[in-house]
Design goal:
Layout lengths: L1 E3 L6 H5 L8 E2 L4 E6 L2 E9 L2 E4 L3 H11 L6 H6 L6 H9 L10 H10 L5 H15 L2 E3 L4 E3 L12 H6 L6 H13 L12 H8 L7 H12 L9 H11 L12 H14 L1 H4 L1
Antiparallel strand pairs: 1-5, 2-3, 3-4, 4-5, 6-7
Helix pairs in contact: 4-12, 5-10, 9-10
Length: about 270
C-alpha cells in the first residue's frame, strides 16, 4: 500500500535518532519498525510517498500515531527564533526526525538498559532479550521476535539478565517486571496522569531517574513538553547557552527540540566531548 506524508519525514534519521533500538535497514531503502506485535516495512517510493507493508486500518490505527503524523514538525521548526542559532542549525540537521509513540513497556525497559551504554550495545541487549523471551514472528522478509512482555519475563532472574549483557541494570529490570505484574505500576492508566505525575510514577521503578523517566514520557507517551537531558546535551547547553535551560521557551515542543540537540550530538561527538 502507498501512503502520502507531506510533513518532514526521514526514515534514515528516525532510525539513527537514538530513541528506538529495533529499527533495521534492509536493502533498497526499506526500514523495518516493530511496536508490540506489529511489524512494518516502509520504503520511500517518491517525493512524499511511501510503500508500507500494512493495510489502511493498521496504518491509521498503529503507525500514524507511532510516527506522530498528527503533528506538523515543519511548522514547529519554523518557530525557532533567528537568535537561537544553534537550535536552528540542529533542527536543520535533524529535519525529518519524528518523536515516535512507542510501546510504554518496551520503552521503559530499553531506556533502563540504555544507561551508560552505547547505542550498538543497547541494541544487542534488546535483541538478545527478544530472541530468548519474546514471541516468534514470521514475516515475508524474515523471522524475528517481539520484545518480551512483563508476563513473558515473569520467571527471568537477575542472572538471566546478566547473561544478556544487562550488567548492573539486571535488578532494575527485575523490579520493573515485578511492579508491572503486581499492578503497582499500571503503564496504561499512567497515560491519564499529568506530566509530573507520570514522571513520578515511572521513578518508582528502581534505577529510573529523571532522565530515563523523561525519555519514557517523551518516547512512549508523546509528552513533547518533556526534554531529557543527558551528558551530551548538558555539554551543548553549557557551551552554547552558558548553562541556561534552552528548552523552557519551547513549551509543548521542548522534547522535539531536545531530539534535534541529541541528533546533533550523535553526529558531532568529537565536538561535544
Amino acid at each position: 500500500m502507498e501512503v502520502y506524508i507531506s510533513d518532514l519525514f526521514d526514515l534514515e534519521k528516525i532510525a539513527g535518532s537514538g530513541q528506538c533500538f529495533r529499527v533495521l535497514s534492509h536493502s533498497g531503502g526499506t526500514y523495518r519498525f516493530i511496536t508490540g506485535n506489529q511489524v512494518l516495512y516502509i520504503r520511500k517510493s517518491s517525493e512524499e510517498r511511501y510503500q508500507v507493508s500494512c493495510n489502511q486500518a493498521v496504518w491509521e490505527g498503529v503507525w500514524r500515531p507511532y510516527f506522530d503524523l498528527g503533528r506538523n514538525y515543519r511548522d514547529i521548526s519554523s518557530q525557532i527564533p533567528a537568535e537561537d542559532t544553534f537550535l536552528r542549525q540542529a533542527a536543520q540537521m535533524g529535519a525529518g526526525i519524528r518523536i515516535l509513540r512507542q510501546d510504554p513497556w518496551e520503552t521503559l525497559l530499553t531506556f533502563i538498559i540504555s544507561q551508560r551504554k552505547s547505542i550498538p550495545a543497547i541494541r544487542a541487549v534488546v535483541e538478545m532479550l527478544s530472541e530468548r523471551y519474546g514471541g516468534a514472528v514470521r514475516t515475508p522478509y524474515e523471522s524475528l521476535h517481539t520484545f518480551p512482555t512483563a508476563a513473558q519475563l515473569r520467571d527471568v532472574c537477575e542472572e538471566d539478565y546478566r547473561a544478556c549483557k544487562a550488567g548492573y541494570r539486571a535488578p532494575y529490570l527485575c523490579d520493573a517486571v515485578q511492579k508491572v505484574l503486581s499492578g503497582r505500576l499500571n503503564l496504561e492508566k499512567a497515560a491519564a496522569l499529568s506530566d509530573s505525575g507520570l514522571i513520578a510514577a515511572l521513578e518508582e521503578v528502581r534505577g529510573v531517574g529523571i532522565k530515563v523517566a523523561n525519555c519514557v514520557a517523551l518516547f512512549a507517551y508523546g509528552r513533547a513538553s518533556c526534554a531529557p537531558v543527558d551528558t551530551w546535551i548538558r555539554r551543548i547547553i553549557q557551551r552554547e547557552y552558558n548553562g541556561r535551560d534552552p528548552f523552557g521557551r519551547y513549551g509543548a515542543a521542548a522534547g522535539i527540540m531536545q531530539q534535534y540537540f541529541f541528533y546533533y550530538a550523535l553526529n558531532h561527538k568529537t565536538e561535544t566531548a
